[in-house]
Design goal:
This protein has about 475 residues and is an alpha+beta fold. The protein is built from 7 helices and 21 strands. It is about 15% helix and about 30% strand. The two termini are about 65 Å apart.
Length: about 475
């Protein structure tokens, strides 16, 4: 470059430049260039040609998190209007007693009565708050009006949180929550009013649990078992919601078995979209069905992590620890408050035998909503993975933390029947945007969703738990 400048400066045929020295031409060249540091320099530090450059900001906001397209159940579930905060409904579990229908001419058939019962479900309240400073509404903002963008963001945020809770919420753990699909199926299938009396005595039709405890991989046999269980319980489910990782592993197993004809065009990989068997249904892998795995590396809540003491393992009839499960187990626990989750506590470990449950004394501050329990593989004190949530009792009290009902890091699959008489979303209305009073130079609003999932026929849904 210096040779070119020298030639330009000394060439008499180049008018206007030949009379300048090489240094002067170099200064001109500097003045007309844009610094290589333009993109990393503060605006008030831009000089020379960089000060004349206009920033180029892409008009499209690049989204690096989930979007509305990732919500699977919310799009599928039927929405029904609830006119009160407590919604009642009737269920029928028989058309009449099982009697012989034949009769003697001149007489009358045996009288039978159908059986009905009433139950109710309570609407719960979900929401989030938006907040935009007033000056942001006056500027020419990138990507459109700021408030409109934030309303969209809060809509997706609230629906995404609800998507996960529709599967897993439990009011016995947090009274503010509704009961999700798993909790309603688990509780209601034990209630006599939800047990059909037809086919009594005919194998296990209508009498099998709607929850399968797999404790292994999801494969074609599990899919068929779910289909058969659903049909035997009078269901006609059509969609299976499961984690993306579980579905991928399932598809890979089929890919290994794939056979092709000579000359057939091939593509890499294989995604299993449907199951065809006793019942035909579609697979709907979802990010929101992926299981919780590890404790948070950084706390969201300002509260301190709980402290643990005195792990005990008394015998309990509800224990699912078998002889093969006996050993030393390590646990860590995090607390979830209204402002978020804490980091995990220090680990505590102890011996557990077959038929035992695990209790731990948990000491905490404030009023946590619930605790997240994490367990390490047997015989280790690292690699803790999530097993379940539990409700707080009292600070310093012994809490039941593990019956071995849920394995660390395990997932669930939900085979659902989208029929308003079986499963629906009961709501007081659509999502509401509720403006708050102006108390400072900002615009604040609430986005609210009042509703609850209703499982009116729990046996017609089938769930597989403890999947890997």
């Amino acid at each position: 470059m210096s040779d070119v400048l020298l030639n330009v400066a000394n060439d008499p045929s180049i008018v206007g430049f030949g009379s300048h020295s090489a240094k002067e031409v170099e200064e001109i060249q500097k003045a007309l260039s844009i610094s290589q540091n333009y993109g990393t320099t503060a605006p008030n530090a831009l000089v020379q040609g960089s000060a004349l450059s206009v920033e180029d900001l892409d008009r499209t906001l690049k989204l690096v998190t989930h979007g509305i397209e990732h919500l699977k159940l919310w799009k599928d579930i039927q929405k029904e209007r609830a006119s009160q905060t407590v919604s009642q409904y009737n269920v029928q579990n028989s058309y009449g007693q099982e009697v012989n229908p034949f009769f003697q001419m001149g007489q009358v058939p045996t009288q039978t009565d159908s059986n009905r019962a009433r139950d109710f479900i309570q609407v719960k309240y979900l929401g989030t708050q938006g907040h935009v400073l007033h000056d942001l509404t006056l500027i020419q903002a990138a990507h459109g009006p700021v408030i409109a963008n934030e309303v969209k963001n809060k809509t997706i945020e609230l629906l995404a949180r609800n998507e996960r809770f529709m599967f897993e919420a439990d009011s016995s753990i947090n009274a503010l929550e509704y009961d999700g699909i798993y909790t309603q199926v688990k509780n209601k299938e034990l209630d006599a009013k939800y047990k059909a009396t037809a086919f009594n005595g005919y194998s296990s039709v209508g009498q099998e649990s709607a929850i399968l405890d797999i404790r292994g991989a999801f494969d074609d046999e599990v899919a068929e078992d779910m289909a058969l269980r659903n049909v035997n319980n009078f269901g006609y489910a059509m969609d299976c919601y499961l984690g993306t990782d579980i579905h991928s592993s399932f598809s890979k197993a089929f890919y290994a078995k794939q056979r092709t004809l000579p000359g057939e065009a091939l593509t890499s990989g294989q995604r299993i979209k449907e199951h065809t068997g006793t019942l035909d249904f579609r697979f709907k892998p979802s990010l929101f069905n992926r299981p919780r795995k590890i404790p948070l590396p950084i706390a969201i809540s300002a509260s301190a992590a709980p402290t643990l003491a005195n792990l005990a393992s008394p015998v309990d009839a509800a224990s699912e620890f078998l002889a093969a499960d006996a050993g030393t187990y390590s646990y860590v626990i995090s607390a979830v408050y209204a402002d978020g989750e804490t980091v995990a506590s220090s680990q505590i470990s102890g011996a557990v035998a077959a038929g035992d449950k695990v209790t731990i004394e948990i000491t905490y501050t404030g009023t946590p909503l619930y605790f997240n329990i994490f367990r390490a593989p047997v015989g280790t004190t690292t690699g803790h993975e999530f097993i379940q949530r539990i409700a707080p009792i009292a600070s310093g009290a012994a809490h039941d933390v593990d019956f071995n009902s849920y394995l660390p890091g395990a997932a669930k699959a939900f085979l659902l029947m989208h029929d308003g008489d079986v499963l629906c979303w009961k709501q007081l209305g659509s999502m509401i945007k509720y403006d708050l009073a102006v108390t400072d130079t900002s615009y604040r609003w609430l986005q609210l969703l009042y509703g609850t999932p209703l499982v009116a026929a729990p046996k017609k849904l089938t769930i597989a738990k403890n999947l890997f």
